[in-house]
Every structure is written in structure tokens, then in C-alpha cells.
Design brief:
The protein has about 250 residues and is mostly helical. The chain is built from nine helices and two strands; from the N terminus they run ααααββααααα. Strands 1-2 form a two-stranded antiparallel ribbon. A hairpin with a 2-residue loop joins strand 1 and strand 2. Helix 2 runs antiparallel to helix 5, helix 3 runs parallel beside helix 5 and helix 4 runs antiparallel to helix 5. It is flat, with a radius of gyration of 23 Å. The relative contact order is 0.15.
């Protein structure tokens, strides 16, 4: 099964209703992503850090995943100041940098980290199954929710099948190189993974129909809105409003 280490805990955010967390994450992400000034983005980043601390997650794992994201952002810092243009030139040694490019790169960096922390603190503290059922409660199309839940349930089966085929290739002394034989081998591995996945899907479908499957996964326990959930949702709504107002300062 896909590992979701952040969903295991006993903090308030772990116990909160997934519907509330989905609404909060969507609202905060939308506001921060659309902000064009640093003040609301800084405020959003501060809120994300407070939520992360409230979730009591293992910071080492979070920061390692943040480092992977910021590894891609480094390329923006290399390219944007040199290519963005604008009316605010900057000189750093022999290089003529765009001040607007530096500002945009900084804004993207802050937004990316804030949104990532929103998702970790609010969404990753629930399992994929809980989020799928939370989306159903928000009237997201049932077929989309079903696909998410089904994908989460069976993608590890596809991965195990590919690993089995790759292991069989290694037993036969296959070593990847930059040649035509390697490309053909990987193409065969990918094709056989699709074929075996299709065959497995047919058997799973027949087994589910025999058990009376009607197109919907039912949760093990129904989540209801509690007083704490309503207070948290009201607090998040107030936070979003304040961040929006900061954008007009």
C-alpha cells in the first residue's frame, strides 16, 4: 500500500473532519497563489508554519520533501533574473540581473513553500481514503472520487507487478545501457505491465461484481461535523479574509 506517514498522529488536525481540511486547504492555496504582493504571501507562509506546528509532524521528513521542491525552484533563480527583463536593473559582478525577475523568483519560492505546507498540514494528515470520502461529501462527481479511491487501492499492485518483471529481467543478466537493446527491454517491460494490469483489472471487476459492488466505496465510519470542526472552519475563513485584505495594503 502507498505509504502516508503524515496521516498517523493524534493532533487536532489529524482528528479534524476531512471536509473542513479540504475546504481550508483549497481556500488558503487559492488566496496565496493569486496574491501579487509579498505581505499576504508572507502571512500565508506564517499560517502554514503554524498549521505544521499544530499537526506535530516530524520536521525532518517534511524538510526533506521541501528540499526536493526547492531543488526545482533553484532553476527559476538561475533563469528568471537573467531573462525576465523589466525596468529595475541590478548588477551583480559582471552580470546584469532583472530586479523584477528576482522579485518574481522570490514570490514563487514563498508561494510554493506555503502551498506545500498547507497540503502537508491539512491534507496529508488524513488518509487518501478519508480525503476521497470527504470529496464525496463536498459533492465532487462520484466517478472522480471512485477513481481516486480505486487508484489509491491498486496502484501499488501495478508497481509490484512492474518490480517483479524488472527483477526477472535482472536475473537474466539485464543491465541498462544507452543502446537499442535497453530501450526495447524497457518498452517490453512497460507493455507487459499494462497487459498484466489489464488482466488483473478484469479479474478484480468480476470479483467485485460477484460481491454486489454498486460503484461506490463506503467508509468504515461516517465523519460528522463537530463543534471543534466548525470553530476551526470559522477560524480558517477569518484567516483567509485577513490575508485577502492584506493584499490591498
Amino acid at each position: 500500500m502507498i505509504e502516508d506517514p503524515f496521516s498517523k498522529g493524534d493532533s487536532f488536525l489529524h482528528q479534524a473532519n476531512p471536509v473542513v481540511k479540504i475546504i481550508s486547504a483549497a481556500a488558503l492555496t487559492l488566496v496565496v497563489a493569486l496574491s501579487k504582493s509579498f505581505i499576504p504571501v508572507f502571512a500565508g507562509l506564517l499560517v502554514s508554519l503554524v498549521l505544521l506546528a499544530s499537526a506535530r509532524l516530524f520536521c525532518g521528513t517534511v524538510f526533506r520533501r521541501m528540499a526536493a521542491i526547492n531543488g526545482f525552484i533553484v532553476f527559476l533563480w538561475i533563469t528568471l533574473p537573467l531573462t525576465y527583463g523589466g525596468d529595475v536593473p541590478m548588477s551583480v559582478g559582471p552580470f546584469a540581473l532583472s530586479g523584477d525577475g528576482v522579485r518574481l523568483a522570490a514570490l514563487i519560492t514563498l508561494k510554493s513553500n506555503a502551498v506545500f505546507l498547507f497540503f502537508v498540514a491539512l491534507l496529508a494528515t488524513s488518509t487518501v481514503a478519508e480525503l476521497g470520502h470527504g470529496m464525496e461529501a463536498l459533492q465532487v462527481p462520484p466517478k472522480l472520487c471512485f477513481l481516486i479511491l480505486f487508484l489509491y487501492r491498486y496502484i501499488f499492485v501495478i508497481s509490484a507487478e512492474y518490480n517483479r518483471l524488472a527483477r526477472a529481467a535482472r536475473i537474466r543478466c539485464f543491465k541498462p545501457r544507452t543502446n537499442l537493446h535497453t530501450y526495447k527491454t524497457y518498452a517490453h517491460l512497460f507493455a507487459m505491465t499494462l497487459v498484466k494490469s489489464w488482466n488483473r483489472s478484469q479479474r478484480v471487476r468480476e470479483a467485485m461484481l460477484l460481491r454486489g459492488f454498486n460503484g461506490r466505496f463506503y467508509p468504515m465510519r461516517e465523519r460528522t461535523m463537530t463543534g471543534h470542526d466548525r470553530i476551526f472552519l470559522a477560524g480558517m475563513a477569518l484567516t483567509v479574509i485577513i490575508i485577502v485584505l492584506m493584499g490591498f495594503i
